[in-house]
Amino acid sequence: MADVLSQGEIDALLSALTTGEMDAEELLKLESEKKVRVYDFKRALRFSKDQIRNLSRIHENYARLLTTNLSAKLRSLVQIQVASVEQVPYEEYVRSIPTMTFLNVIEPIPLNGRVLIEINPNIAYAMFDRVLGGHGMSFNKIDNLTEIETKILSGLFESMLASFAEAWTTVIEMEPITENIEVNPHFLQLVSPNETVVVISLSTSIANTTGLMTICLPHVVLEEILPKLTSHHWFQEQRGALSTEDQALLNKQVRQTTLEVAAELGRSTITIEEFLRLGKGDVVALNQLIDEPLDVLVGGEKKFSGQPGVKRDRMALQVTDVLGGTDDE
Prior knowledge:
10 helices; flagellar rotation; 3 domains; alpha+beta; elongated; six-stranded antiparallel beta sheet; 329 residues; Surface presentation of antigens (SPOA); single chain; Chemotaxis protein chec
């Protein structure tokens, strides 16, 4: 994006042109020199904007699923939403997170490699406090976790993976499992320092505690499914025909669906005063003649015409005409 000049820089430039300190040709020369930009190969962009946009959609869905999951488990108000999605070198990501935090190393079976879900201690301990019956207050003692704390927090983190797998079902059937939990990012070498990773930051609020959760997705892990992260692939999948098995299952489910069918004898309009005076033996005249076919309603919509009658001592109706559309409809 082009640099935006401040008002002071604009005034200085106009003053230099007015006084003759800088002519128009020199200004054009400087402008042409600015077209050469410095490129940092350490920050190589390996994900397209389309792929970043679809990753953002996946994790917006994950945030909604996780909000529902944790709200039910913690019995507290939980709000989670995507704050940012960006691609950075892994080394830069490690420097951006706290030196002591909860790092869940996840193996995203069947994908190769590992992904990382980092949970800020404020959020983790607020979850821990709610599970034990507290108000969701946070405290910081991550450097000295007891065995009970580790077990409870591990169970909470494990329950978050089901929502993660569900959010990814549009791209791949994933079965993520927790490999281990670390607390110091400098002791964890997930990928090489210069490897490009996508970092999804989730703004999280539990009771009165707020903080961030981050998800680190290395390029090497997503490389084999990158073609599925394009809008073209998603639209193609949506337009694709159903398989034979899916079609048979769909037909079976549709055929078992129940519909309400009603034959309407006729209608009448009366005033409220007439309605209140109705009594036993009164007759209400309908707008339907006795020799006219009846309207047959399916799901509240007129679909057929029919003639009333009796079959085996039971009231029945014979369909005489289809109202509009084809027979299949």
